Amino acid sequence: MWNGTLESSEASKQSIRPENFEERKQGKTLERVLIVEDEVHARTGLTELIESWGYTAVGAADGVEGLEKTASWKPAIVVTDLKMPRMDGMGLLERIAELPEHVAVVMMTAQGSIESAVEAMRKGAFDYVPKPVDPGRLRTILQNASLQHIDAVSEAPGTTKRPREMGSLGPLVGTSQKMREIFALIERIAPTNVSVLVTGESGTGKELVARALHEFSSRRSKPFVAVNCAAIPETLIESEIFGHEKGAFTGALERRAGCFELAEEGTLLLDEIGEMPAATQAKLLRVLEDRKLRRLGSKAEMPVDVRVVAATNKDPETAVAAGELRSDLYYRLNVFNIQMPPLREHMEDIEPIAHKMIADMNERHGCSVTGIQPALLKRMLAYQWPGNVRELRNTIERATIMASSGLLGIEHLPPNFGEAGFSPSMPKGGRLGEGSMSEVERYLEDQNTVRVEVGTTVDEAERQLILKTLTATHNNKTKAAEILGISSKTLQNKLKEYSSNPALVD
Fold first, then answer.
1. With contact defined as beta carbons under 8 Å apart, do 169 and 125 qualify?
2. Coil, strand, or helix at residue 290?
3. How far apart are CA 81 and CA 97, in angstroms?
4. 412 by DSSP, 3-state: which?
5. Are 4 and 40 in contact (CB under 8 A)?
6. Do residues 198 and 226 make contact, with C-beta atoms less than 8 angstroms apart?
7. CA–CA distance from 349 to each of 13, 197, 357, 361, 457 (Å)?
8. pLDDT (mean) for 240-268
9. How confident is the model at residue 118 (pLDDT cuts 50, 70, 90)?
10. Cβ-proximal residues to 327 (8 Å cutoff; 6+ apart), any chain
């Protein structure tokens, strides 16, 4: 990953120089690129790196100078830092948007801040790149921005492509036709208040769709609350969603607001809606239709202003036929349906998704991984990813921790990854379907064993142990607490913590 020094960027110049980008038609230089960066060494190194790819590049020390050079020099692309004196990157982005010329703005976000990246995209940025800058990702962004600029200057005003059509939308990443269609639908319906049903296999990114709908709506400054209906005990789910009054039931020692109240004026994601009990579904339908709710134990109704997004990994029509999902609730939620494809149906998105994940993992774990070796990418493209994007994220996280720096290689993958018989939940070194029946039996027996990989956090190991113990006791919480050596109250608090964060429960 480029860190601003000329020495570290020399290899990148040789390895990622464009070979067949037509050198901007017949060997001419590519578009003009303005680099706005207040740190002199970083600005000089980045300017030279971009020039080595065939662009004409100049630098500016802050947003004020950047705006002046944008107006006079008229670059096609502006790559700007976020934090700068006099005028920061967000202010520069807003001022550039007022100019008559089409300029693609790429934001460099310190520490990979997704919040600032989302804000920049919402204000019209073409794309963003986390710091320290990944040369491969930056080159791809510049190439896409150049192609967009060619379209912009050759087409009539108002017909240019939107920046979000170029490979990302908020937390979502993808350049495939399937993902572009999803991006377009999200852009169309995000500003409205209609209910949305997101469907797709487990791990395909349904919660990310809900977050994108929230981030690109007028509710973006209000709460986003996500609740996993499958993770809440049936006896508590109504209280969790609608709230309760003091004394409403045994143990209700004080009034408590539910998820609807917590998400007031914002967005509520009801994940795994098909797992919600039928009686609770009926009450949910009434809230959606009347826009009023009643806490458990209360006689008074209160108005609510919440946009509801529901998600399920089941086929909703099959769930309706099986009586798992009320048909009237399904039709009320399914004003718009966004079907998330399994990763195996848009394999071309693996590389850009993986690069974004690497940047996230570098920030999270203090690593400095620069990219992916071709052999590893080939192995990843040959794998079917039954766990979808969630499995890809876990694989990238493990590989990033194992590698720590440099390029991710095959040696950083789990043992036997991608080979015949490999299962993401197999014990280390095991292959289901190969060997004797006793080996298969041993594998099944191991399902009652918690296996913790190097790099797993203590909190994650604890979560696995608690959930595995509950499975072994057939969800008998009293017995599970006894086995774990903790009180029932502590166990209940842990389960509530997991249910408040759907990413912790699958």
1. no
2. helix
3. 17
4. helix
5. no
6. no
7. 25, 23, 12, 18, 29
8. 85
9. low
10. 320
Q: Are 203 and 505 in contact (CB under 8 A)?
A: no
Q: Note the pLDDT tens digit of each residue in 148-180.
A: 565 455 443 443 445 454 567 888 988 898 998
Distance CA 246, CA 287 (A): 21
Domain ranges of the chain: 6-164, 177-341, 450-506
Pick from 115, 76, 110, 78: nearest CA to 94: 78
How is 17-42 classified by DSSP, letter by letter? S-SSSGGGTTT----EEEEE-SSHHH
Q: List phi, psi (to 5°) of 33.
A: -125, 125
Cβ–Cβ < 8 Å for 355, 371: yes
Specify the residue for token string 């006894």: 482
The pTM assigned to this predicted structure is 0.54
Say how far apart CA 13 and CA 53 lie, in whole Å: 7
CA distances in angstroms from 219 to 41, 190, 226, 271, 334, listed in the order given: 40, 10, 15, 19, 20
Q: 């038609």: which residue's tokens?
A: 25
Fold of 450-506: Arc Repressor Mutant, subunit A (1.10.10)
For residue 204, what pLDDT band results from cuts at 50, 70 and 90? Answer: very high
Residues linked to residue 107 through DSSP beta bridges, in sequence order: 80, 128
CATH fourth-level superfamily of 177-341: P-loop containing nucleotide triphosphate hydrolases (3.40.50.300)
**How far is the C-alpha of 427 from the C-alpha of 151, rounded, in Å?**
52
- Could you identify the residue written with the tokens 């696995």? 464
Is the confidence at residue 325, as pLDDT, over 80? yes
Q: Which helix (H) or strand (E) holds 423?
A: none
Common-topology check for domains 6-164 and 177-341: yes
| Of the candidates 9, 3, 251, the residue with the CA atom closest to the CA atom of residue 130 | 3
Enter the CATH code of domain 6-164: 3.40.50.2300
Which residue from 200, 186, 184, 187 is spatially nearest to 271, judged by alpha carbons? 200
